[in-house]
Task: structure prediction
Amino acid sequence: MFVIAREQRLCRIGRIQVGGQPGGNPPLLIGSMFHEGDRLVEDRVKRKFDRTRASDLIKRQAALSAETGIPAVVDLEARTADEMKTYLDFFLDLSDDPFAIDMWNPKQRIEVARHCAAMGIQNRVIYNSLTHFEPDLGETARELRSLGIRHVVVQTYKKTPMRPAETVQSLADLLAAIGPDTFETILVDTASVNLPAIAFACVASRLIKERFGLPTGCCPTAGIFGWKEARKLWGVEGEKVIDVAEHAVASLMWNDFLFYGPIARAPRMFPAMAATEVIRAALRFHETGVLPTEKGNLLNLFFADFLAQLPDGPPLKIAGGD
Result:
């Protein structure tokens, strides 16, 4: 279940590693800022936002990443290229880490990519994303490559709902248009659009890793956004628990990265993903019989004493199990 026969691509984005065999690397957590409805934004036209709060959130995510061993990226969102340039200047003054640029308008998004290339920071950019809705996907991919953009998200969404086989075919069509080996990093977003669709997205992640060997992920937080009855039934606290649960399940089920929604949620997401990743690493050991050796593996990081008691050898056998 947690070992895939096909060789898996391990992508490096700055200090971050994403991809590989499930359980080999913790999932990359991607938190958004300046999205629609973000209370940080005071006036988009005047480019006014709460800089103190935004700085605190970026620093908090970075601190949680260091504490838990879960890698992190900030996903900067904006409506226009000029607005995005304001957020870029702010972020670049604070951090040397990679970041994602996330815009729905393809023309505005490629303009920001050109701006990043002119600044010489294109190696830090995760272009979010290449989709079926590009006017000319092949031309966009070629221009991004000429600009030196190395890392992209490929969004498989075409319609709602999408069964796993449809998602795999969607990706095949996208890759055919983009061209082979155009980018160093291709992060495949399998497009979870509501809570039950997370199941289809996770199965699609497994199928894509088997066929293409690419890092896969999704946006589980779409599950709680689309389930308005949950807050009516269980209140804000119940809604938060559901949000953590859907991310934990998605993390366990073959995903290499997760868009976890607003960066303000980092204090609950990073501990939850750390706990999930410890369990996934132990499941991988049960399946393979091989103890993790990576220094950053969360079993080593938090449960070295437990690991020391386990012998190398064939997979453990559980009564009544495989």
Observations:
- The radius of gyration is 20 Å.
